[in-house]
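Hey, I was hoping to borrow your eyes for a little while. For a while now I've been wondering how a particular protein folds. The fold is given in discrete form, as structure tokens running alongside the sequence. Could you read through the record and tell me how the tokens relate to the sequence? Take your time with it, there's no hurry, and the full record follows here:
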Amino acid sequence: MSARLLCSSFLLLALTGCSMPDKVANRVAPTCSVGEPVRQTTLYFGLNRPHGQAITNAEWQTFVDEDVTPRFKDGLTVLTAKGQWLGNDGKLAREDSRALMLIHAADRNSEQGVEALRAIYKQRFAQDSVMRVDTPACVAF
């Protein structure tokens, strides 16, 4: 498989929000010499609406306060980002974005919380997608 096809396949999987079944996730969970095995999920939220004004800082913070925090009370990290991609029309698109990093157990409750956030954001702000990237991790405090 060519590197380009492999990269495209991984990008397609990330964009479709696939998740590993628990049996598979447990097999690829890291063996931690320090800390506990967990999952790191990073969600990427575009701040441009298809029509109308960009999503404001106040609207973003309301989403974090009312939707994210109740589902992930143990903590989270929000990063300011600049996203870009090649559109279907062949033009380079750029957009202010937010990356939301969540460290959580690889369980059904967390999975439902992550998917709820993606659905809420897409519906509330007329977004086509919210990119999701999952990685096994070791965490120690």
About this structure: The mean pLDDT is 84. The chain has four helices and four strands. The radius of gyration is 16 Å. The first strand starts at residue 36 and ends at 46.
